[in-house]
Design goal:
21 strands; binds 2-acetamido-2-deoxy-beta-D-glucopyranose; Lysosomal protein NCU-G1-B; seven-stranded antiparallel β-sheet; ten-stranded antiparallel β-sheet; alpha+beta; glycoprotein; transmembrane helix; signal
């Protein structure tokens, strides 16, 4: 009886310790797809078959809660609201889906205290361009020339989004999929797709596939897949416009970190992070990626190709897209005030002489979006071991060689002194 009681007490205290650590050092993550939805657009779809989708991933910690509002309403966007631990969000779907910007503004509201440095990442447009000169960067084709027929802007708002679902094996995830069907003799079959997949975790780890981006409880992992899209040009490449929206007074900026170590991503020695607060990254939000995407689902080293991020713009050419995003549903007109700083770029997929998109008709790119200091690839113990093994032998030889030379010199000196001494001694004696 008594021992059973002790066992029980021990069990309870273990549980208490466990839950203490869970709240003190961790985050509890939950996901709700289409929260508060009371309109048919998210349950049965629009009349044209597309769905209105929101995934609300909530990461509750002891100091703050991160609310990720991920949506394809308007344009694909990730809004990250940082607030007090007990806060919650309200979604007014009627207003969210309104064509009237005034009604959309404020359709997502926070119950609780907003903390500093909420931010958003908005995927504004998919650009397909004819890379006639094989430059693999979209910047070569615009030159302020709006009449060029060498590129086409695909509006994400005109894509037919399937209903958001979780990814297999992770309940804290969301897949936004645009499937292009082919109507073949009255039977529709999926032929191509474009999808944004998000995965959140309550621990630190790495993607099981390349480029093995590091995830942790403060970020979500994104995979953007362009699968079997039908191209408009012979030398088509794709590029996606991205606008970073920061609420610190810093200007969001992209920093490049170089590493000696390509252990996690063979062949890649660079990492980029686009922080909303470059002067103090631990307080800001970020989008982090490596300059590599893959042209096959096996994501091996051979299928890797480059991701080029163009020079920064202020993102204001994309104002009409931003106004359609869930970032606007939360921030409203504040989005275009001095309280908010935006920055834009295009991520272009591909590398000169890689055979363009049609070579494989497949591109997948990974990134993380999160709060705080972006993870860095530290040189691992294994690599330190390998380096020291490589450096070790010569170092030992140099070290011992040096000691040997010093000792020998010292001995020679001593010999000389002895000799001199004995010489003089013998001289005295003689
Ligand atoms: C959404 O907002 C409208 C207008 O502001 C209001 O009439 C309606 O009751 C709200 N819906 C919900 C579910 O709160
Ligand atoms: C948009 O909605 C606001 C508030 O409901 C209303 O005052 C305004 O007239 C509407 N604008 C348009 C163009 O319908
Ligand atoms: C497309 O780009 C090529 C190479 O720069 C150029 O020769 C051609 O005139 C461009 N076409 C149009 C319609 O701009
Ligand atoms: C489907 O209808 C909605 C609402 O009218 C519209 O916003 C969206 O662009 C349409 N999608 C397509 C693929 O036509
Ligand atoms: C998107 O939809 C297509 C067709 O239904 C499917 O084959 C594909 O696996 C889906 N993509 C993802 C990432 O779920
Ligand atoms: C396929 O196309 C035919 C002819 O255009 C049309 O009658 C039929 O409804 C379509 N089927 C589907 C499943 O969309
Ligand atoms: C890719 O698209 C082509 C036509 O553009 C089609 O014939 C083929 O079946 C598609 N492949 C897959 C895997 O869906
Ligand atoms: C995550 O964020 C919390 C609070 O903002 C911080 O205390 C913690 O160190 C961060 N953890 C990681 C792995 O970045
Ligand atoms: C993408 O590049 C084009 C051409 O340089 C530019 O007009 C556009 O603003 C860029 N997009 C973003 C989000 O910066
Ligand atoms: C990619 O798709 C194009 C048609 O859009 C086709 O001509 C080409 O053969 C495809 N490439 C592969 C590797 O399947």
């Amino acid at each position: 009886m008594a021992s059973a009681c002790i066992v029980k007490m021990k069990f309870v205290s273990v549980l208490l310790v466990f839950s203490y650590f869970a709240t003190a050092n961790g985050r509890k993550i939950t996901t709700v797809l289409n929260p508060d939805c009371d309109v048919p657009e998210c349950t049965a779809g629009y009349k044209n078959g597309s769905y209105a989708n929101i995934a609300h991933i909530k990461a509750v910690g002891s100091e703050d809660t991160l609310h990720y509002v991920i949506s394809t309403i308007g344009v694909p966007s990730v809004l990250v609201i940082r607030s007090d631990p007990t806060s919650s969000l309200n979604f007014n779907w009627t207003n969210l889906l309104s064509d009237n910007a005034t009604e959309r503004s404020g359709s997502i509201t926070l119950n609780g205290k907003a903390l500093k440095n909420s931010f958003a990442v908005v995927f504004t447009e998919l650009i397909e361009y004819n890379d006639v000169d094989d430059k693999a960067t979209i910047a070569s084709y615009f030159h302020g020339d709006t009449k060029s027929t060498n590129y086409t802007i695909h509006d994400f708002g005109e894509m037919m989004w399937s209903q958001v679902v979780t990814a297999p094996g992770n309940k804290n995830s969301a897949v936004f999929n645009y499937t292009i069907f082919k109507n073949d003799s009255n039977v529709e079959k999926p032929e191509a797709s474009l999808s944004f997949t998000f995965n959140a975790y309550d621990n630190t780890g790495r993607q099981s596939v390349l480029p093995k981006m590091e995830y942790n409880m403060n970020n979500t992992l994104l995979d953007l897949l362009l699968n079997n899209l039908t191209v408009l040009y012979e030398k088509s490449r794709f590029s996606v416009g991205v606008v970073m929206i920061g609420t610190s007074q810093d200007k969001p900026d992209i920093t490049e970190t170089r590493s000696l170590d390509d252990e996690y991503t063979p062949g890649v020695f660079k990492m980029f992070d686009w922080s909303t607060k470059p002067s103090s990254k631990e307080d800001g939000g970020y989008l982090e990626w490596k300059p590599i995407c893959y042209t096959s689902s096996s994501r091996n080293r051979l299928s890797g190709t480059y991701v080029n991020s163009d020079d920064r713009t202020d993102g204001m050419h994309q104002k009409h897209y931003l106004e359609r995003s869930v970032a606007y549903s939360y921030f409203g007109d504040k989005l275009f005030s001095t309280e908010v700083v935006t920055s834009g770029t295009n991520m272009s997929f591909g590398l000169t002489q890689d055979g363009f998109y049609v070579k494989k008709n497949y591109t997948v790119w990974s990134a993380t979006i999160g709060h705080g200091a972006p993870p860095q690839d530290a040189i691992s113990i294994l690599v330190i071991g390998v380096i020291s093994a490589g450096l070790g032998l010569p170092v030992v030889i140099i070290l011992f060689g040096g000691i040997f030379v010093i000792v020998k010199k010292h001995m020679a000196k001593k010999d000389q002194v002895m000799r001199n001494f004995s010489n003089s001694y013998s001289q005295i004696n003689s």
